[in-house]
Please model this.
Amino acid sequence: MTRVGSGIINVITESLYDKPIVVFREYVQNSVDSLFKSDRVCEKDIKIFYAENTLYFADCGNGIEKELFDIQMGGIADSGKLKQKNLGYKGIGRLSGLPYCECLKFINVIDYSQNEFQQYCLDGKKYAEEKNSEQVQKLSVEEFLNILSETEAQSQDINECLGTLDSVKEYFRNHNRGFLVIMENVSPVLKNTIESDKFEANLSWLLPVDFRPEVYSQEGEIGDITQFLRADNQEGAPARFCNIFYNDKKILRPIAVESFRNTVFKNNFEYAVGMVTFNGQKIQIDKNNDFSGIRIYIDNMLLCDESELVTALANYGYLNNHSINGMIQAVRGIGALIYITDKTNISSNARRTFIEITDNDSLQFLQYLAEFLNNIYDARYALSDYASILKDKTKKQEDIEKKKSDALAALCKFVSENVAVEEIEDQSNIAELSIQEKKTIVKKSITSRISKEMKAFLKQYDVDNSESYYEDFLKWLGEHN
Model:
């Protein structure tokens, strides 16, 4: 049998995870995997509690089979999950919390009412003290884990193991079965992360949570696309989600209806599907809108944002010689969520923070993303050039038309051929236009507005039984405006 040195524990707990908040991703993803393969009829609820400097992650899934508990807790990369179906198939995520607490506990609740459970503990304090010692470096993974671990027999009451928080005990009283991770006395760096002002907002972007209800109820592209992303009856829906609560407050994706710009569309990246929103005439950053930039998800778990994406693509030479800062500024003018859908070819190559180029599929996917980013950049600055030339009274009309044509071409390339883009209107000197030119602008504006209204009207209109469709449309307009 090949011997694996204890140093690998440091690699998979500290080197692999670059931010303290990733411990939430790792333990929640294990709960998600457990809940979705559970044979139990129960709400897919995950509860996260933080109290008295201790973190609790509770789920009501099947937990771990009793006979396999000690084996899986004492090994690495032995989770038994399938990489095509589970993001956490590598079996190493459970150790991610070890550097961030004094004691890491795993409790397999087999039957709460019968006081049947299993517990495995790792001493985080001892890990911090001994991880770099010469003696430990000579040990195998199993030998080092044995030094750190303690598997308690069922001689004590389960409530003693569940900690001091009554909410945790109530959770398992209600569900009777599940799994609990406890991080006792979290480290100062993790404590600072949890107690920061942006922590709950960061959790809502990070975890596999649902959109706000009012987003689904929107007519038109917003409602259509969000419902497509999370459709309960859709096989392999990209935005699979659970009900996740932090200190009994339900976490939802922080996207309000007003977060969307005036253009919303779905984009297909072959290995992923994306939802994109932007302002058609001026792609610019809105500092008051949290739905800005690009976020890529696997199983609705955040993989990376635009900063990591742009930096990586630049390192591969995919950004058409644009600067990293310039590209990041450009893409933050839109709001985009991209969900990886190809579980076999892409997600199995995903590291915890990005995509590794290990084969042609990963390479092709990154090239799609790079083309998408380059198109955003080109569209933004083509629109900016057009806006600038409109203000310059010395420019000839043919120069203005050329910039306008370039801007429209760049915009159409960005949104793809399947999305209609509104004509860019020159309203900078409307007072100087002739009556006919003014009427043309008004006509275009009304036509664009009516087109959108008509599309929304037809979605709910019974065409087969219609005799007064025009009157019905006018009535509908009056009710919705």
